[in-house]
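Most newcomers find our protein records easier to grasp once they have seen one. Each record describes a single protein and holds just a pair of labelled lines. A learned vocabulary of local backbone shapes supplies the integers on the structure line. Nothing more is needed to start thinking about how sequence determines fold. The record below serves as our worked example for the rest of this section.
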Amino acid sequence: MFAFRLPKITALAPVFFGSITVAGMPASASSQHVPTVQYTVAQAEMGKEVFRQSCALCHEPDLAGGDQAPPLSGAYFASSWGGSPVAGLLSFVREEMPFDSPASLDEDAYVDVISYILSVNWIPAGDTPLAMGAPGVITIVERK
């Protein structure tokens, strides 16, 4: 039987689709600048191939998840990671994935696959490359 470990998040913040504000932030903090996640289109494109080779077997090619692993897109991803620092997601994936061989990819591969996952979840790319330990909060916005 497959055992999946959820990320170590103490409290999952509710995510409200259609909002550009950071999920889980108190209203008084909404006027403070919270950096958004930054990654490039090139990183997401490279990450798609890494995902295909190293992640799709468990998470499915469309990131919908299945019997072996949870979805990495849509409502599940939003409720699991929306409002969280991207550095936490990067660390979790680097330390725990692939499930059968954790920490077996190089750092760039982990960064690229997270960039791809962010792109699938409609988090827009920018000009600044994503890096391990990068600042930024995963902000889910409504698809248009």
